[in-house]
Amino acid sequence: MRLLAATTRYYLLLTALLFVVGSLGLYYGINWALRNEIDEQLQSRRQELVEKARAEELPPVELLQTLLPVSRQRRPEGFRDTTMLDKIEHEMVPHRLLTFPLTVSGDGTVWVTLRKSLVEAEDLMGVVLGVMLGVLALLLGGVVLINRWLSHRIWAPFRGTLATLRAYDLQQHKVLELPTPAVSEFAELNQALTVLSQRLVADYESLREFTANAAHETQTPLAIMQAQLEQLLQVPALAEDPAAAPLVADLYGATLRLSRLHQALSLLSKIENRQFAEAVPIRLDQLLTEKMAQLEPLFEARELRYGLDISGPVVVYMHPGLADSLLQNLLQNAVKHNVRGGELAVSLSPQELKISNTGPAVSGDPARFFERFRKQNAASESPGLGLSIVQQIGGYYGFGVRYSVAEGGTRHTLRVRLKAQAVPAPKKSKPSFAATE
Amino acid sequence: MKLLLVEDEAALRTALLSSLKQAGYIVESAIDFAQAQEKILLYQYDCVLLDLTLPDGSGLDLLRILKASGSPAGVLIITARDALDDKITGLDLGADDYLIKPFHLSELNARLRAIIRRRQFQGQQQLVFRDLLVLPDLAEVHVRGELLTLTRKEYDLLLYLLANPGRVLTKEAIAEHLCGDAVDAADSFDFIYTHLKNLRKKLQEKGADNYIRTMYGVGYKLSTE
């Protein structure tokens, strides 16, 4: 619900309530005041008559009867409401009656009934109420209109701030630049946001540096270990020793695993920290063909029947390293969880990359396959980060990654929904990333 | 063959130096930017192995100086994994190849071989090892004058072995060389075994016996005798 709608709703509620209470109060108040006024008028006429009677200025009863409704019989005294036929307008009209005894000298006591029509009072009340309600209705409409106008005018800086925040990208390492509006609340908001973004940029920077430093510092000892162990394997005495050589080889293998784990983790954290800003057009079809060719010996070793189906050039905007990692992990995953003599089908279209492989039936929630350090086989030497990396890269570029299983749980399919772009005009070729010979 | 190794990490430098010397290179080393700059400007090298992160400067600047001085030396960049953009800049600046730390020393030998071959002989080259004659430009291998027909992967494997004669090559290093970076060690090494078996058989058929020795639990070695 928009703020305007929310406040207007409360305004309307309150105004409607006041409207009802006010109308009722006004109606009864005016009614009461008018009746009071009429009663007073009747009373003063009675007073007049009584005084005239006392001063013996009244005409005899016969004459009085033509002027006033007079009765010889006893009548209930006091005020009464009644309706009477108006002889001019020919309709029943409410009247106020006052009956009292009057002693006319010489003629004894008679009961006089004074009456006054309430029609004028009701007309007056109608006019007053109408005006009041009209004013209230105008006020109500005015409140709604002024709110709408205010929300356009006063909230403009807020909407400006919101637009700036939406467009804000931490990766640009820029502090938010917000204006200082005249409304102090918004000025405070903008100031607080600016301070927040300064802190964010600083934290992001230090985190980046930390990740880079930590990765670098770990990499160096690993590189030393690996190089020294490889040199140790060259020592003739050791290489010939059937007991020692496999030990060193195991150490060497473990160092490699550690360094792979380290690479995978620092890749994950770099993706999470969004440290891959640079996206360039990547010919995914070419890269995929290259990767498939590279992994061919692996397919052959597992006696896999494999097929690659590319519907045409596919260009995506990605960081070259991440594109490489995405394909590498997907293909490796499909080989790793395959069976000897199984199948591997890869198809690529501008909309989707689909990798489908045979494999043993797996148990458990498919969503959990993407968890870190998740292994199908606990004894596996692989750290189980492949699919996490796939998912992270997918999330980073807004590619949906879906897993599905068919044929009684033995055919596993991973689909990556791509956001492919049109093929750009050929540019000058970049240096190849696989500069091996 | 004279090389310059620019590497600031002492232990890594030592390992690299001894491996390169074993491979028959004359190697000089520089431990920082200043020393490397001096050597580059004073002497001629066939190839420079360049670490990009140095305590007192960037390896990329060394590369610029080297290229500006018109040196014919080949350049192999050694870089940390997370510095992918530096790698691209390096290749743009005219480096021949790159290796990402940590790497296999045997892979380094293979890459160096390729660079030096490309740089020095301008295509007029052949590689002789015992009874083998390899013509890299034609991708042909002859055993005692007879042509040996190899698959692409077998040929790659043989070249890799020839770049590291007498050296123990681990299964992991061979697997990474054949299948590219980041092949999972957990995946079977069956495919190396298959390819090596086929290669051996083909060599044997032409009378080149016992060239490839299996080092139990470790890997393989191209025997020099």
Overview of this structure, please?
The complex is a heterodimer of chains A (437) and B (225). Helix content of chain A is 54%, strand content 17%. With 437 residues, chain A is an alpha+beta fold. Chain A folds into 3 domains: 3-152, no CATH class; 186-272, no CATH class; 280-417, Histidine kinase-like ATPase, C-terminal domain (Heat Shock Protein 90, 2-Layer Sandwich), CATH 3.30.565.10. Chain A has a 5-stranded mixed sheet with strand order 6-8-9-11-10. Chain A is rod-shaped. In chain A, 22% of the residues are buried. Chain B has 225 residues and is α/β, with parallel strands linked by helices. Chain B has 2 domains: 2-120, Rossmann fold, CATH 3.40.50; 127-222, Arc Repressor Mutant, subunit A, CATH 1.10.10. In chain B, the strands form 4 sheets. Chain B has a 5-stranded parallel sheet, with helices on both faces. A 4-stranded antiparallel sheet of chain B has the order 8-9-10-11, with no helix packed on it. Chain B has a 3-stranded antiparallel sheet with strand order 12-14-13. The mean pLDDT of chain B is 86. The chains are: A alpha+beta (437), B alpha/beta (225).
Topology readout:
The complex is a heterodimer of chains A (437) and B (225).
Chain A: H1 3-54, H2 61-67, E1 70-71, E2 78-86, E3 91-104, E4 108-117, H3 119-153, H4 156-167, H5 184-234, H6 236-240, H7 244-272, E5 280-283, H8 284-294, H9 296-301, E6 305-310, E7 315-318, H10 320-336, E8 343-348, E9 352-358, H11 386-397, E10 400-406, E11 411-417
Parallel strand pairs in A: 6-8
Antiparallel strand pairs in A: 1-4, 2-3, 3-4, 5-7, 8-9, 9-11, 10-11
Chain B: E1 2-6, H1 10-22, E2 26-30, H2 33-42, E3 47-51, E4 53-54, E5 57-58, H3 59-68, E6 74-79, H4 84-92, E7 97-100, H5 105-120, E8 127-129, E9 132-135, E10 140-143, E11 146-148, H6 152-163, E12 168-170, H7 171-179, H8 190-205, E13 212-215, E14 219-222
Parallel strand pairs in B: 1-2, 1-3, 3-6, 6-7
Antiparallel strand pairs in B: 4-5, 8-9, 9-10, 10-11, 12-14, 13-14
Helix pairs in contact in B: 2-3, 5-6, 6-8
